[in-house]
Description:
The structure is a single chain. Helix content is 26%, strand content 31%. The protein is of the alpha+beta class. It has a five-stranded antiparallel sheet. Strands 1-2-3-4 form a four-stranded antiparallel sheet. The radius of gyration is 16 Å and the shape is globular.
Amino acid sequence: MLLRRMADFQPLRVESAIAELGATRAQYMRAHNRWQFMLHSRRAPKGLALYRAALGPPEVTEERHVGDVTVMAHSWCLPGLWPDLRWEVVVGVEDVVLHGWLVRAGGEPESLTPWSCVVNDVLLAHPQAQQMDPDIPTQWLVQSGQKQFWFVYGLLQSVRQHGHLQAGTLAHQGSSGHG
């Protein structure tokens, strides 16, 4: 599910990742389609139970306070492509999933380049930065001065400056953002 939306920004990296994981393109698409079916099926588990069914029990569960609201954050190790990152799902009342994205498990990134860091890494490096919602469920945007850091499921995909892409990133054109 993660790679499908990342292909909108980084198609060559996604193709390499599929090969690195030892999957064929057909297997990758079957896995994506299965996830989509589970998301929309009346019979599939809902909320946190869906992630538990797909990923097993979370590695870490912690309570967080957001203003007057208490939520639970659950995270899983995703072996393979990003061993220093975790998939985190934040849930509210009755285990309804409020948000899911990649987060750093610990340590610091080597650089703030695509596929090397997550939203919090950029926020720590740029304390003046502002988080923005680009109105696409799987994406996030952080603005720091003239730089825009674009994320998919919390993982940096591209850095844009003055409305243009910096060298080494691919253009994002017309993604629907769903799925």
